[in-house]
Each structure stands twice: as C-alpha cells, then as structure tokens.
Amino acid sequence: MICRVGDDQWGKKYKDHLKNEGVNVSYVHITKNETTGVAQIVVAENGENQIVIVPGANKCLSVQDVEESIELIKNADVLIGQLETPFETTYTAFKLNNGIKLLNAAPALTDIRKILPFCTILCVNELEASVLTNVDVTISNASMAAKKLLETGCETVIITLGSEGAVYMSKNEECPKHVLCEAVNPVDTTGAGDAFIGALATFLVEYKDYPLHQLIGAACAVATISVTVEGTQTSYPTKNDFFCKKYEYVQLE
Fold first, then answer.
1. Does residue 65 carry a catalytic annotation?
2. Carbohydrate kinase PfkB domain location, by residue (predicted)?
3. Exposed site from 76, 145, 230, 239, fewest CB < 10 Å?
C-alpha cells in the first residue's frame, strides 16, 4: 500500500490496522498537520448508498512518494490506482509499472484521458462510464460504451452493473461479454466496487491462466457477498473458494 494518512489518532490506528491485516505498510506515510481521509456513508433502506468524501491526507500523495517507491511500483504484478488521490501521482505510477495496471476511475472525473493508454484494465461503474463517454450508460448500451472507452487506448474495459454483473471488452476480442451475477437482497452496497477491484487484482495474479470472464465472475461473487452484510471492509469474504463453479456469461454484439 502506497498512501498517506494524517497525524491524528485515525492515521496511526489505520496504519496499525493495515499491518495487522498483513499489508506491507512501509510506504504508508503519516502526514503532518493533516487529518486522515474519511468517508461519511449514508445507506438507504434498499441498501443503496451516498458517500461524502473528505480527502484529508489523501490529497498529499505526491509524485515524490512514487519516486521513493519506484522499484516496488515498477515490479508489481498488479498496480491498482483510483482517483481519490492526486491524478498526476497516479499517472506517474502507471507510466512506470511493468505489470498489469488496473485503474478504478472513481470518483467520476472527466479529464483523465492521458492515463488511459497506460491502463491494462479500466474499471468503471455505470455513472463513471457515463461521465467518460457523455452517454447515459445502462445495461442496454454498456457494450457500446465499452467499445467507445476502448478507443481511448486502454487494453480492456470493464463496466460493473451492480446486480446485473459486468460487461467487458478487450482489444484482442471481437465482441463484448456480459458476465452474469447471482441475485441477492442487498443490505449495504457500500464498498462493493472496492471488493470487486481487490478480488479481481488478486485473481489476476493467483488464477492468471483462467479466462477473464471467469475472473470477473468470481470478483462479482465477492462483491455480491459483500452487499449482504453491513459495513465495508467488515463485509468482505476471505476464505471462500470462488472457483468451485463456472460463471455464466453472454456474448454481446
């Protein structure tokens, strides 16, 4: 983990928490005179959520932080980036990495075109895809949106669709695919996208010989379990065998 936390009580506690979870915290920096980034989450009765983000120390993650961790970034099998930290920092890291570069383009921003040719995988939800394509993206036109996003230079585009699963397309494939998802009654959808991204990154390394539609299906299964439990990290499953079944998918035009 390469990040910044504040010099408040939450910064130290969170660094300790990450360490206890087995995360290497060598590049988790405590930032003086800054608060730790927080997210205020409101969950509706149907499980949907609204999130207000206060970035705090997140906004201080710098290109210098990238340079100080350059060997780790260059040699990582998978580099995950997102847009809650300064864009130039993520952009610099993506140009350096020699592995799979997975960008979760959240929160939705428009002016990120220059990083997309460096993305092995661009992963967005319907809202984020809509912002990037200037089209109101739904399941009915997700394949068109994926094709349009591929034109920006990334190698693979995944559009997550909540309970509808995900649509993806790669440059080396002629047609997009719709990976289906098990229906559940959601309790709290907060963090489902993060569950998907984290699971996908893990599966890309540990099950790299599997076809991408199965990796995406397994990541959808992780996210699906997470929405049946309250909370974010506390809702993430850890010990399930997600490859004991084959995940259904449909070829689209």
1. no
2. 1-238
3. 239
In whole angstroms, how far apart are CA 4 and each of 11, 44, 95, 224, 239?
8, 31, 21, 29, 29
Residue pLDDT tens, the chain, 253 long: 999 999 999 999 999 999 999 999 999 999 999 999 988 888 888 878 788 888 999 999 999 999 999 999 999 999 999 999 999 999 999 999 999 999 999 999 999 999 999 999 999 999 999 999 999 999 999 999 999 999 999 999 999 999 999 999 999 888 999 999 999 999 999 899 999 999 999 999 999 999 999 999 999 999 999 999 998 888 999 878 999 999 999 999 8
Active-site residue, selected from the candidate residues 7, 77, 194, 209: 194
Write the CB contacts of 112 (distance below 8 Å, at least 6 apart in sequence).
83, 87, 105, 132
Q: What is the pTM of this model?
A: 0.94
Q: Report the alpha-carbon distance of residue 148 to residue 145 in Å, rounded.
A: 5
Bridging pattern class, strands 166-170 and 27-31? unpaired
- From residue 102, give the alpha-carbon distance in Å to each of 36, 66, 118: 25, 16, 9
Residue type, 102: L
Looking at residue 136, its amino acid is D
Token digits for 147? 């094709």
Contact between residue 165 and residue 143 where contact means Cβ atoms under 8 Å apart: no
> In this structure, how many other beta carbons lie within 10 angstroms of the beta carbon of residue 102?
23
Q: If you search the block for the tokens 């649509």, which residue do you land on?
A: 167
